[in-house]
Amino acid sequence: MKKRGISPLIATVLLIGFTVALAVLVINWGVEYTKKTTEQTGKTTTAALKCATELNFDLVKFDCASGSITVDNKGAIDIKSIIFRVYKGNSVTPDLDAGKQGVTKFNVRGFTLAGGANADKIEALATIAGEEGSEDITCSQAPKAFETSC
User: Where are the domains of the chain?
Assistant: First the structure.
């Protein structure tokens, strides 16, 4: 029986063809991955810059009897919502989202929200509007803290 294989020339052409096809697939994947990573990094950087430069609010006053918190928005951007963490002794209350509790006047210079009475410490995280068509940004890098004297 005479067995014949493919010629070395055809084998070389097939190997080069497979290598080129594989390289095209890897390059396409790499371009998409790089583009997606760059876009995500850009969005994260924009959000961090907005939080650092345009947002400026303070927890001004806490009434121990009623548990009300007064916040003063001094920044150049409207606050959509604020998430409060109330510390009492060794316990922390679950996050209180002021926007979900019906407080809607975050675009004025000051507002009051009922929180927890007899709190030791209160932290606040502001949420601002994202770019057009994107989701809101919670500025969690630097929460504002207020030590109470209750």
Answer: 1-53, 56-147
Identify any residues that bridge with 125 across adjacent strands, giving them in sequence order.
83
Task: Quickly state the pLDDT bin for 91 (edges 50, 70, 90).
Answer: low
- Compute the mean pLDDT over every residue in the chain, rounded to the nearest whole number: 78
Place of tokens 């345009």: 54
Q: What angle do CA 141, 143, 147 make, to 5 degrees?
A: 155
Tokens coding 69: 């918190």
CATH 2.60.40 correct for 56-147: yes
End-to-end CA distance of the chain: 100
Enter the pTM of the model.
0.60
Backbone angles phi, psi at 19, to 5 degrees: -65, -45
